[in-house]
Write a structure and sequence with these properties.
- The chain is of the alpha+beta class.
- The chain has one domain (33-139).
- Helices cover 18% and strands 50% of the residues.
- The chain has 2 helices and 8 strands; from the N terminus they run H-E-E-E-H-E-E-E-E-E.
- It has helices at residues 2-17, 62-70; strands at residues 34-42, 48-52, 56-59, 75-80, 83-95, 100-109, 112-124, 129-139.
- The protein has a 5-stranded antiparallel sheet with strand order 2-1-8-5-4, with no helix packed on it.
- Strand 1 (34-42) and strand 2 (48-52) form a beta hairpin.
- The longest helix has 16 residues, at 2-17.
- The termini are far apart.
- 8% of the residues are buried.
Length: 141
C-alpha cells in the first residue's frame, strides 16, 4: 500500500511540475542590437588562415553593450521599414604573439565582458594578424 501511495504521489508531482521543467523561449527585445562580426586571420606572409563569421553569441549585460557603443564614433543613422536605426561600424587589428587556439571573440567594456561570440576556432601562430570588423545596428536611443 505504501508503494502505491508513493507511486501516485510521484505521478502527481511529476505531472504538476512538468510545466516548470522547460526553459522559457526567448522573447523579441527591441533593445537588443543586431551585431555582425567578421574575423579574418592572416599569417605573417599575408596568406589567409581563417575567415569566421560567428553566430553564437552570449549577452551578459545589454546595458554595458549600449554604454560601450555610446563611446564609439562614426555612427550613421539609417532607415529600415520606416524606423530609424543607428549603425556603428568599427574595426580592430592585432598581431598574435604566441601560438594558441582562439574560439571566442569578445567585446570588453570597463574590464568586463558584456558580449562574447563563440565559434569553431582556429590556431593562431606568432606573427598572425587578426582583424575584426564589427557592424552593429540598434534602435536610436
Amino acid at each position: 500500500m505504501k508503494i502505491l501511495i508513493l507511486f501516485i504521489l510521484v505521478i502527481f508531482l511529476s505531472s504538476t511540475l512538468i510545466g516548470y521543467s522547460y526553459g522559457q523561449a526567448p522573447r523579441e527585445d527591441p533593445s537588443l542590437p543586431q551585431i555582425h562580426l567578421q574575423i579574418v586571420v592572416r599569417d605573417s606572409n599575408g596568406q589567409l588562415v581563417a575567415y569566421v563569421e560567428p553566430t553564437v553569441v552570449y549577452l551578459r549585460n545589454v546595458g554595458w553593450i549600449h554604454e560601450y557603443l555610446d563611446t564609439k564614433e562614426n555612427k550613421t543613422l539609417i532607415t529600415i521599414e520606416g524606423q530609424i536605426f543607428e549603425q556603428i561600424k568599427y574595426e580592430q587589428s592585432w598581431t598574435q604573439t604566441r601560438q594558441r587556439q582562439i574560439a571566442t571573440m569578445q567585446m570588453t567594456y570597463n574590464g568586463e565582458v558584456p558580449l562574447l561570440f563563440r565559434h569553431d576556432g582556429y590556431i593562431a601562430s606568432p606573427g598572425d594578424t587578426i582583424h575584426t570588423s564589427w557592424d552593429i545596428i540598434r534602435t536610436v536611443r
